[in-house]
Design a protein that fits this description.
Layout (H helix, E strand, L loop, with lengths): L4 H25 E6 L2 E6 L1 H50 L9
Antiparallel strand pairs: 1-2
Length: about 100
Amino acid sequence: MPFTIQDILTLKVWRWRVWGFLLLFITVRCKIVMKGGAIMFSFFTNVTKERQKMEQSKKEMELRHNEFADRVRMDIQTGEEELTLKKEFFNQRYGHLFRPRNK
């Protein structure tokens, strides 16, 4: 199945479109950085900055969550201690009314 002239021209057009897209992508998403007299491209600088911000906010959120969880655990523990104290006080004061008679 040989290629026709039209197929070859179509392939060339698509190749130019791909190169144009890549060039546009590189100019939009890359930043040219001069290091040591040589031109270097730092790809996806915006993406890495956004990723770092997301990781930092994730760490902060985990820290806040851990602090909140610790406070909730302490509240539960103090609530249980208060409940046991109230039970003991109630049993001391009214325990004789609730003891079984047939012992």
